[in-house]
Amino acid sequence: MSSRLALFAALIAFSAAAPAQEIEVLDEGFVWDLPDWLPAPPVPDDNPMNAAKVQLGRHLFFDARLSADGSMACSTCHEPSLAFNDGRAFSDGVGGARGHRNAQGLANVGYSPMLTWANPVLRSLEVHALTPLFGDAPVEMGNIGQEQALFARLRADARYRDLFGEAFAERDGEISLFTLTRALAAFQRTLVSADSPYDRYKYGGDGDALSAAARRGEELFFSEKAECYHCHQGFNFTDTFATSRSGFAESAFHNTGLYNVDGAGAYPAIDQGLYQVSTEPRDRGRFRTPSLRNLAWSAPYFHDGSADTLDEVLDHYAAGGRHIGDGPNAGNGARNPLKNPLVLGIRFSGTERGDLLAFLGSLDDPGFVANPAFADPWPGGHPAVVQRRQASPFGSPAAAAAPDRTALLPSLVAACLFLLSVVALLRARAAMPPTDDPFSHSDPLS
Amino acid sequence: MNSSFRSRAASLAPLLLSAFGAAMLPAPVSAADPVPLSLNFAAEIAGQPFACGQRYANLGRTDAEIAFADFRLFVSEVALLAADGRRVPMTLDDDGRWQDGQVALLDFEDATDRCDNGTPPTNAQVSGSLPAGDYTGVEFVIGVPFDSNHGDPTLAASPLNLTSMFWNWRGGYRFLKIDMVAAEAGADADAGHGGAGHGDAMGDGHGAAAGGGHAGGHGNASAGAWMLHLGSTGCESPSRTSAPSQACAQPNRVTVTFNDFDAGQDVIVIDPAALLADSDLGSNAPDTSPGCMSFPGDPDCASVLPKAGLAYGDMAGGEQQLATVRRDAQ
Predict the structure, then answer these.
(1) For B73-86, how does the pLDDT look when each residue is reduced to its tens digit (9 = 90+)?
(2) Cα-based distances in Å from A63 to A73, A124, A356, B158, B298
(3) pLDDT, tens digit, for every residue of B159-172?
């Protein structure tokens, strides 16, 4: 793991030396912050991008008044310093309601034509926002039936009257399901992670951006020996992907043999993946391929957070499926009849395993994690945040159980970068004269 | 049917036409001109009028005492059945609130007591119009038509923008939402709230949905809440990439037909007690949704959906027992 330590040191160095990115102009003059090789994410016709809408969405994203009891914002489960993950296997909703899926990171979520772990009917960020806001099985932010109370809470804040007014002038700044979900989606489409060492190496022409180990790991990743790339493919390392230039929105679901509780392919009844929506028995255990970007911050892994470390994940693929000896989920996933046939098992040497981890580490993007444009815009003590729960990278069982201290390092790096950015923000804010301009607090960041 | 009760739209029509039409319309009135009509509904629990938070005894196979926290349903595809056998569709009004021209929301909760996630106004009527005629029966669907069920709810007009009826992760609406809480959980909640609620400001704003803190169960196996939700499952198989042309595998729309029906006098009673007759409302099958949320493979649904006239698993749908007609005594 010493190579991993060196790698993270290198990441910080690269981050500091990051060149100015190219920009692309689309949609009402909106300026995407993208490298020139990357097309923008698709944008629905009814939600064109504009800067005011993104700023509104950012305020909403971090605002705990979006939950019924003021305890949760979107950021509670999608924390910037954790690459918009929460470090937990499962996330709790308001009132202690228990979820049963691992919150996913939001890096490049705008490029995902389907949302959540396994839902072919959730095709836009706009509609997806309704699930955490209003869902009741499981309860997340707990607003079911309380949309008018939610709108009233937002309307009571003068800042929102300005923000909605600017973002949705054509609708007279109305605060509604439409504008709320559009603004949240617009902000999330800006969450692009495309400046990892691998991006610089692969797309940016920087041949020195990857270590020798990471380059060997790349070879292995894209080989027929490891077979990783069939599902984890393309810019975002997933086969559910679309850009603004795509003619088709591709999506795919796979059973990777994590479970086989009845010997006939079943996953634990609490979550059988795509089957829960399609009700096709062959869809049991099929989940959307997650991106492999920013894995340093996304532990624990898999749809149910059932692997604490990347080593455990590699063990699973090395065995061609996970064998669970006892307990309610006992079974040999390698013999799951519904398993994707490419999950065959891989014979790694110790060096190869290290190489693969080095390659996966090269997909971590500290600049994304510390990007001030994605940071909490609310001042401390504001009603938007005063009761807000934070995801804790160190309080999660997964982090506590991780035997390898280096697994905590990326979180430490992220936390430090985040703190530095917060300090910078506070200093910048302190230097600003008081003003009623709703964007004054975010100007130093943009 | 007793033909003496045939008042109906047919007999209403000439009255209206002579009173207003002849005086106001220069053109001769055709028999095909639509006349207004309303269908009256009522919500009951085992024959007793539904009320939020009220306890009802002897429900289900364990004779449980249960309180209710919600009672709403969508009605669509309404038609009257003519004496000559024709099925004549009724055009629903668009009132901007309860009906959008295609779908009507029947809402029997009034946001009091355990229904604190609800809305104060109630609606027990479906209103529309149809050509005058001699009608002897009625037919309607409890559900939202496929074409309206999978649109963007943030763009939908009322009543299809009520978050209580969203069924987000399954892509559609709850067609029927009847939420129950064990009576003792209801008692705790009453004591805690000191009456009708400010639940919207609290963590238990989802009330019955979570069962949550009151019932002591954070898991979804909580015995505190038992919910009966009907909605489509098995939607949009991923094998079809071009989206919403494909019907869901289990649409779960309940078609209700009464061949002997007089809109002028009859009330259509929605009562879930018969559907729940073989259910243990004090428990929930492990690792399944609390109560019956229409999902295949949930033992809590096995005895319920067939009694709503819906096929479930290997079982064929029987006669629907959710709706009955009652002719009010004159």
Answers:
(1) 999 999 999 999 99
(2) 5, 21, 39, 27, 37
(3) 999 999 998 777 78
Instruction: Report the pLDDT value the prediction gives residue B201, as an integer from 0 to 100.
Output: 30
Exposure of A374 by Cβ count < 10 A (0-12 exposed, 13-18 middle, 19+ buried)?
Answer: buried
Helix (H) and strand (E) counts in chain B: 6, 15
- Supply the range of the domain harboring residue A289: 206-361
CATH number of domain containing A295: 1.10.760.10
Are B270 and B291 in contact by the 8 Å Cβ rule? The answer is no
Residue A7 domain flag: no
CB contact under 8 A, A98 and B203: no
Does A36 map to a domain? yes
DSSP A283-294: GTTBEEPPP-TT
Q: Which phi and psi angles does A76 have, rounded to 5°? A: -60, -40
Whether the CB of A45 is below 8 Å from some CB of chain B: the reply is no
- Selected for mutation to probe chain B from A144, A154, A248, A272 (highest B CB count within 10 Å) is A144
Q: Which residues pair with B135 in a beta bridge?
A: B82
Given an 8 Å threshold on Cβ–Cβ distance, is A139 in contact with B152? no
3-state SS, residue B313? coil
What is the rounded radius of gyration, in angstroms, for the C-alpha atoms of chain B? 21
How far, in Å, CA of B136 to CA of A100, rounded? 51
Is A278 an interface residue toward B (CB < 8 Å)? Answer: yes
Report the number of distinct structural domains present in chain A.
Answer: 2
Instruction: For residues A52 and A188, state if they share a domain.
Output: yes
- Residue B216's pLDDT is what? 31
CB within 8 Å: A142 and B206: yes
User: Which stretches within A270-377 are classed as H helix?
Assistant: 275-278, 310-318, 350-361, 366-369
How, if at all, do strands B291-292 and B225-230 pair?
parallel
> First CA to last CA across chain B, in angstroms?
16
Chain B CB contacts of A120 under 8 Å are 236-238
Q: Are A51 and A177 in a shared domain?
A: yes
> Does A440 fall in a domain?
yes
Give the tens place of pLDDT for each residue, B188-235.
Answer: 333 333 333 333 333 333 333 333 333 333 333 344 789 999 999 988
pLDDT tens digits, residue range A212-256? 999 999 999 999 889 899 999 999 999 999 999 888 788 889 999
How far is the alpha carbon of A394 from chain B, nearest alpha carbon, in Å?
Answer: 23
Q: Which amino acid is residue A440, in one-letter code?
A: S
Q: How far apart are CA A254 and CA A276, in angstroms?
A: 14
Angle of helix A350-361 versus helix A212-221 axis, rounded to 10: 100
- Please report residues of B whose CB lies closer than 8 A to that of A182: 154
Q: If you average pLDDT over every residue of chain A, what do you get? A: 85
Average pLDDT, chain B: 80
Question: What is the token pair recorded at A423?
Answer: 């300090």
The answer to whether residues B166 and B150 touch, using CB atoms and an 8 Å cutoff, is no
pTM: 0.78
Name residue, tokens 């489509």.
B232
B247 → chain A, closest CA residue: A278
B169·A253 Cβ contact <8 A: no
- A-B contacts (CB, under 8 Å): 157
